[in-house]
Amino acid sequence: MNSPLSSIHEASMSILETLGVRIHHPELLEMLSDRGIRRDGDTLFFTRTQVESLIASAPSEIRLHAANPAYDMVLGGDRTYYGAGYGCPSILDGEGVRRSATFEDYLTFLKLVESSPAFCLNGGVLVQPSDITPEHSFPLMLRAAILHSEKCLMGMPGHGREVEILMEMMAIARGGKEALEAKPQILTLVNATSPLQFDSIALETMEVCARYRQPVIISPGPIAGATGPVTLAGNLALGNAEALAGVAITQLLREGTPVVYGLQATTADMATGGVSIGSPGFSLEAMTTARLAKRYGLPCRGGGAGTDACCVNAQSGYESMMSLMVSRREKVNLMLHSAGILDAYGAMSVEKFITDLEVISMVEYLEGGYETATDDLAVSVIEQGVEGVPFLAHPHTLKNCRTTPWIPSVSWRGPLKGRTGKEVFDDRIDAARDRLLSAYKPPHHEPNRQNQLDTFLESLGIPVGHTAG
């Protein structure tokens, strides 16, 4: 491990040993203390040996099972997967007009994600709908994801019983509790509260996921200069300590619980105090967290197509490309927020989602490199070109022209023909969106699956109502 990573690791070990982590849950605090972790009040202190031992008990790879095995994901090693935006309460349209997200928006993003070959993962909090009862929103969103997707699924955090309801829904959808526990099938993200705290929602989510043997992403999000030190090294040392503590807690709850190292350290805009995810500082932190996770032998989540822009524009393009390129080059296993995010996690945008798919396509092409077989080197073709045979009409070009070059979906290379560049660009975004929505096909489900889910929800007083679409 090189010197910067060693320095951050050593600082994190010191933080866990001397400052500890506050646990805002008396019962779990007692249980964790009983399992050998030193306690002082509501704070737990981890020794280096404890941290290293507990991390070693976590799986280095996680196979997440989809309804359709073609979309199974194996998190770990150098494999890379993309995930759409997560957690936004608002929608920003193509003109930069903001409104509250609705359940219809959630369904739209479910369909866009399902139709896009860029993703093996769907669901979660693609947006937070404002038009359904808050305490019913997560079960209704998971119901929609189960019925609209055959890809791997994201879950949602909550208090213990709230997460249990989601697990019971997954058991109904996937053949019973034993079948669910036998295979990781829903991935849930929990956040630490910086600096050095875990609240009851995070802890109870971790406990339920561990009980059901479902994977959890431990995702601290210290903001350099706001909820963490302004220096990147200090912010990373803090976030790494929080991530390692979270991983350790999952293993204390149940040894072998599948867990993802998900540190998402960000930076602050020093002019406003707000979070910034479009800065090169954010990308530097994403690079470092990927390397730390691989040093610990843990699957990692990080990066994405982050931007601080409030509309699709040049800023959203160059910031997202920087962030996504760094994430992909560092082989981050799961890049959430890879499509749709605007305004530093403040809003989702269909237009940004479509342009991010273009960025993903470009990055994948770039990372795929090129071949050097005889046909690729094409010496005989060059010889014929020297003799006057035009390359454009050569059989070698005709054979490879649809597979070798990168072909854009949204980007425009031709003349504008009296139109503005924005008009052409917007029309191509709309056309790409319409193609994805038209291509969406509801997955096949076993008979009565929807009835079973609806009966279960109604028994809890959760009406499906207008969310049945």
From TrEMBL:
A single GO BP annotation from the record?
methylation
Provide the coiled-coil residue spans: none
User: What domain of life does the UniProt record list for this protein's source?
Assistant: Bacteria
What InterPro entries does the record point to? MttB-like_sf, MTTB_MeTrfase
Q: Name one GO molecular function term.
A: methyltransferase activity
Please name the Pfam families in this protein's record. MTTB (PF06253)
Q: What residue ranges are annotated as transmembrane?
A: none
Question: Which UniProt keyword terms apply here?
Answer: Methyltransferase, Transferase
Q: Which family does it belong to?
A: Belongs to the trimethylamine methyltransferase family.
UniProt name for this protein: Trimethylamine methyltransferase
Annotated organism of origin: Desulfoluna butyratoxydans
Taxonomy-wise, where does this protein's organism fall, top ranks first? Bacteria, Pseudomonadati, Thermodesulfobacteriota, Desulfobacteria, Desulfobacterales
